[in-house]
Amino acid sequence: MTVLQQREPEQPELEYSVRRARTSDVPGIEALVEPLVQQRILLGKDRVVFYEAVQEFRVAVDSSGKLIGCGALHVMWEDLGEVRTLAVDANWLGHGVGYTMMQRLEADARDLGLSRLFCLTFEVGFFTRNGFSDMGTETVDPAIYAELVRSPDEGVAEFLDLARVKPNTLGNTRMVKRLTRS
């Protein structure tokens, strides 16, 4: 998918595309994420974790092939996925890259048969503009909870609001979006 964004009238159009991540993108994903880790917006991850999850990632690249955005979709349950590690190069903020990444991740979620997306974020405004809302005290069916609680995945623990993830999630907002079929 190629996307054109018009900046100010005197500035040229910005062109970028979104594609499936490759293992060769991992260093670029790390570089995109690191400033957000330093700002305590995202949690840091070891390189091996990015390689293990590379199939979950989509990346945005500019017309020269430079990585300008990334995001991942992690399946948590039969109807539930998590948007993870959504990051955009600071020079591309405000040009629709984050929105385009969300659209791609949502399309992927629908293709997988998911009907809900979860995120844990400090970027409440962005996710609200993209149809997410605060989960509040929303819970899952007790039988599903009993299955989910067995997962060693930190994202599942964040979704369930388990005490063991509290030190890493203080101040974040648990948000959810119900997907409509397209």
From TrEMBL:
Residues 16-151 form the N-acetyltransferase domain. The keyword Transport does not apply. The keyword Acyltransferase applies. Keywords: Acyltransferase, Transferase. Coiled coil: none annotated. This is Amino-acid N-acetyltransferase.
